[in-house]
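Lab notebook, bench 4. Still working through the backlog of constructs that have no structural model yet. Next entry is a single chain of 223 residues. Request: give me the C-alpha cells for it.
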Amino acid sequence: MSIQIGIVEDQARIRENLKTRLGFFEEIEIVLEAENADNALQQLQKFSKLTLPQIILMDIEMPGKSGIEATHIIKKEYPEIDILIQTVFENEDKIFQSIQAGASGYLLKDDPIKKYVDAIKELVNGGAVLSPSIAIKVMKFVKNEQSSKVDKVKEAQEEFSLSDRELEILQGIVEDLTEPQIGEKLFISPHTVRTHIKNIYKKLHVHSRASAVRLAIKRGLAQ
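Model written out:
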C-alpha cells in the first residue's frame, strides 16, 4: 500500500520538482499539493478520515501563515498527520519552534531525494527525523517543562499545606476513583482515605468532590 503524501510549498518550481522526483518511487503517492497554508487547510477538509495524507512536507517560509503556524493548526485538527518541515538552511530556532508546534522532523531542500524517502518511511514506522543538535534541544525543553511543572505543584502543595499522602489522594479524587479504589491503590483502608479527604477539603476550603477537582486542576495540584 502506498504512503500518501501532501506537499505545501509556495514556489511552483520547487513544488513540481519535488513532485517529479518523488514520483519515481512507487511506494509514494502525492494526494495533496498546495501553494500556501490556507489552501492546504481548505483541501484537507475535503478528505475523509481514511484518505487524509499520512505525511505533509511543509515549507517553513511562506507568504501568509508560516509553516510553523500551519503545523500547529494541522496537528490540532488532524493529529494523525505527520509533518516534515522543509527549509533552505538549518535555522535551529525555527526548526525547534516547528517541533514544538507538532512537526515530527525536518529536511533541507537540497537533501537528496533518497533522504526524503528514507525520512518518510521512518515517520510511517513511528520514528522521527531530527539532527542530534535539534534532538538535544527538544530533550532540554521537555526536561525544563517537567521541572517547571514539579516546581508549580510544590508551590501549590506548600500553599495549602498538603502532605504527600494528601496530594496522592487528591489525584485519586481527580481521577474519579472511589474511596475503596484509592485505598487499594495506596495500600490504606477506606476509613483512612475518608479521614484524609475531610482534611483535604478543610485545607482547600471546599465542600465537595467537584469543587476539590476544579481547584486541584486550576492550581496544578493534579492532572
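Notes after review: Residues 3-132 form a domain with the Rossmann fold fold (CATH 3.40.50.2300). The chain has two domains: 3-132, 149-218. Flag for follow-up if needed.
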